[in-house]
Amino acid sequence: MELCSQLNYCRSLSPGKAYFYYLIDGKEQPIGVDRTRIRAPKSGFSEGFESKDMKPKDTAPQDLAYSNPQFIEECYVPPRVSEIYCDFSLRINANSLKPNVCAVDETRKTLTALAELYKQRGGYREIAERIAKNILLGTWLWRNRTCRSLDIQVLTNDGQTLAVSNSYCLQWESAWDGGAQDALENLKAFIEKALTDTESLYYLDVNSKLTVGGGDEIYPSQEFVDKKQDGAPSRLLAKTLLNGQETVAFHAQKVGAALQMIDDWWQPNADKRLRVNEYGADREYVIARRHPKNGNDFYQLVERSEHWIEQLEHGKEIPNEVHFIIAVLVKAGVFNGAAAKAKGKA
To answer: Would you say 256 and 15 are in contact if contact means Cβ atoms under 8 Å apart?
Structure first.
């Protein structure tokens, strides 16, 4: 199959911002930030050495004892508050079933046929289960997940209320207890239908309750600070408005990144799940697990779509490569191949 010069998909998962709050008499109260000036010690490599050959800088012993003043934003649980909440909404569309833009009709037909066969063989159920697990496990809470207790509730637009208590005790690989397993099965079925049904609207609201101690630190998203400005903090936390006041939040992209942490197909018996990415970017180890030299990146695999279609048509087990291809299409993006060379002189 030809990767054409114009090929893109619209994302199937569209989360909103996740915002933090606490309750007083049932009313949502914003959690603001503290602006703090600290005297951090000088500890970076470049403070004491000039190059990688460990050549010490010509500094006086006192120079490295001076502080490095910083102005930052921090966030903490208000005093005498033992429970905080974090909520977000998620819209799901069946956009991976066909390209949004495709310059070559044959490519469009091939990709549509692959997605349709994957749907018929129940492949979307595998992706849906992994997304559902990330929602119910609270993966999207990132560092905040390690609290004293975590309860998660999901409200779907078809009237279901799915709840998991003490989510932090659940494990990705282990069997879940009855109530949690029922919630997982129902949410999986809802997400699978949403990813494969183009006729209806699907959305859900995710609510989490975190049991904490007053004064515990909260870890929202951080804003990207390109240039330091005089009088402005060098570390800014993400915020949104709640009842006209600012409250700390997660960016929608950070929530989406957590939901997409489902790729353990990058090698047999992979020991970790990666965020779905064309080249399998592993930020923890700073390496591409699907480097083109390995032949398992998205672009080389999707070019073999005719081969995967043949395998699915013959009733063979869905290969991990196909799960990965469809997961990338669910994530969506621009997948343009090399532009065709112009003929003749300009």
So the answer is: yes
Strand order across the 101-102 sheet: 101-102, 7-9, 333-334
* Tokens read off for 260: 């997409």
How deeply is 24 buried, as exposed, middle or buried, from its count of CB atoms within 10 A (0-12, 13-18, 19+)?
exposed
Contact between residue 195 and residue 210 where contact means Cβ atoms under 8 Å apart: no
Residue closest to 186 by CA, chosen among 209, 138, 153, 208: 153
The whole-angstrom separation of Cα 195 and Cα 207 is 22
Report how far residue 40's alpha carbon sits from residue 52's, in angstroms, rounded to the nearest whole number.
24
pLDDT digits over 134-170, tens only? Answer: 999 999 999 999 999 999 999 999 999 999 999 988 9
Nearest-angstrom CA–CA distance, 5 and 336 = 5
Cβ-contact 327, 318 below 8 angstroms: no
Tokens of 115: 């997605």
Q: Which one-letter amino acid corresponds to residue 109?
A: K
- DSSP-assigned letters across all residues of 210-228: EE--TT-B----B---SS-
Residues 6+ apart with CB under 8 A from 282: 272, 274, 288, 289
Q: Single out the residue of 207, 160, 159 nearest to residue 19, CA to CA.
A: 207
DSSP line for 157-223: TTS-EEEESSGGG--SSSPP-HHHHHHHHHHHHHHHHHHH-SSS-EEEEEEEEEE--TT-B----B-
Higher-confidence residue of 121 and 175: namely 121
Q: Where are the domains of the chain?
A: 7-24+80-334
28 SS3 class:
strand
Q: Is 265 within 8 Å of 271 (Cβ atoms)? A: no
Cα–Cα–Cα angle for 231, 236, 240, rounded to 5 degrees: 120
Q: 154 with 183: CB under 8 angstroms?
A: yes
pLDDT tens across 274-310, in order? 999 999 999 999 999 999 999 999 999 999 999 999 9
